[in-house]
Amino acid sequence: MVDVPVVVLGLGNVGRSFVSQILSQRAFHDRHYGLRLSIRAVSDSQGLVCTGDGGLPDTELAAILKHKAAGRPLAEWPGGGACDSPLDAAQQGTAPGSVVVDCSAADATADALQWALEAGHRIVLANKKPLTQDLAVWNRLTHTPEGTWNLGRSRWETTVGSGLPVVATLHRLVGSGDPVVSMDGALSGTLGYVMTGLQQGKAFSEVVSEAKASGYTEPDPRDDLGGVDVARKALILARGMGLDLSLADVEIESLYPEEVADLTVDEFMKALPTLNQGFQSHCAAAARRNACLRYVASVSADAVRVGLQEVTLDSPLGQLQGTDNLVQFLSGWYNPQPLVLQGRGAGVDATAAGVLSDVVDLAFTHP
Amino acid sequence: MVDVPVVVLGLGNVGRSFVSQILSQRAFHDRHYGLRLSIRAVSDSQGLVCTGDGGLPDTELAAILKHKAAGRPLAEWPGGGACDSPLDAAQQGTAPGSVVVDCSAADATADALQWALEAGHRIVLANKKPLTQDLAVWNRLTHTPEGTWNLGRSRWETTVGSGLPVVATLHRLVGSGDPVVSMDGALSGTLGYVMTGLQQGKAFSEVVSEAKASGYTEPDPRDDLGGVDVARKALILARGMGLDLSLADVEIESLYPEEVADLTVDEFMKALPTLNQGFQSHCAAAARRNACLRYVASVSADAVRVGLQEVTLDSPLGQLQGTDNLVQFLSGWYNPQPLVLQGRGAGVDATAAGVLSDVVDLAFTHP
User: Fold this and answer.
1) Bridge partner residues of B102 (DSSP)
2) By three-state DSSP, how is residue A144 classified?
3) At what angle do helices A276-288 and A189-199 cross, to 10 degrees?
4) pTM over 0.90
């Protein structure tokens, strides 16, 4: 049996589901993979619970999950301690050969992850932020000091398309030397929901309000509608195909105008109907051409762009409904017919399962 | 730089393309992966060329590819030697930490692959045969002696769907403990071509003759039409989700009747029109229900079946055209909307590229 020490940064929804899945899959991973994932440390933005022994007891971890689910910080956990930063958490929590798992949504974990790699640990990211900072940070998190892919130590599958194996597929194409020409797709379940609603004839204000009420959007829907989250995913794919680009190089079309950018969330929701007419005529024009609108990320050596695209109704993107994601790869061997991946591209548990797959994958690499 | 000794069993179309891609990607794998894939031995059914040094020179390998492409056996290559069996080739060819790559289509490689694992080497299979023999052979080729998945040493991505990451996707789902409920799909480019042709109104005899003339079928089209090749793929998926089944457990519907099984190929081709009427009425009945026929592999704990299915025109399988493959996974997290993979599921170069991806993947695991 191989013991894999795990350090978890971030105990939000994804972090808690990840820990919970490790606990519930213990017998399975033991029997079928010969693995014991020993959680040595869990941390949130200010607190840390860690152990010098083999791992935190499962009973304590289960109790910590309840404590956090009730909205209480880790620093208040009996036996928990303060933690200055994710770096502090990683340094205190790791044992030799650990996997440091970033389930946070913070920029601030980049230091911790870089330190972990330099110290000989492995890393898994569900967090897009560290991978979309400066190119130098991307290189340190994904490449060896010699400049080669560090896939034996670093994985980030769920940063694009949640559990859909988008990044793994890209790595397989790239790894064989098959030149990836382009990746196009719908990478936001939230915007997929909005676009499908518009296609069905709903008003923009109505479908955004529905999406917010159903919990499909961030608390401020502009965080989705602005397109930056999709742009981060497009950038991760672009960098994954070898393009040396930064977030500023991604052309981003926002679904709301400058004028409503500074409103409060309540004011913004009230102002939404002023945008209805524009979307309605845009959709109607598309429909007259047997097409519909989708919010599409397009990645190629020529340009990386996220924004509205008119697609024909019988195309894979035109047939996509609801919150499903879809990515089409064109490469040397997949051309003119693309390689297509489709399915749920969001969801706390599916994302956490994808993180767990990355950890299991890394357990087969050199420790 | 990591040197990975490679031994190639089988120098048919896929084996030659695999060697050729290694040669043409040398600078790429060096620069981006820090890898040198040293081909220490190549073999065909009777011959072996191998070296005791770091690897066969690229110039010699390129010349060997030409020699084989001209239809000449390896045993005739100057400096080549006889080889009794794939096991003999593997034993003579390997150096410590080798990857033995099965690009043959023979049952006989199973011994060589089992020996390689026991001797501490790694294996990659493009060949379905060894993985569809007795369950005991499957277990030895894919699991450790302790009964856990041996993914650090064994890969077989291209046995299902060619370069499409079908097996990798299954491994990711299984690895996280997400219970895979079913896999359904079109896994034969040849039968996809036939089914699309029938849907377009072509006669069965016409579309099979076309497929044969275009090189989409085996020399004897019954090898495709009988469904056994698809059944092998279905079995590999079934075993991959943990079902202890054998080929005899797969329900196989053949597209030709017993009566024509013993004819010569020429006689069979001449007898094809007698089958037209049956397919025509079956297709017409489906069309009246806004459906069409597809040759589908269905894998679940309840049953593994390959055969004709009527699917609605607006379903993913109904929309599939030509030789593309498609697989839908239903699991705990991908339900009711499936995870879908679609794209080219055949082709010599795409398959060889998938084999190369497996080798690169394994290069990141413990040697």
Assistant:
1) B9, B125
2) coil
3) 70
4) yes
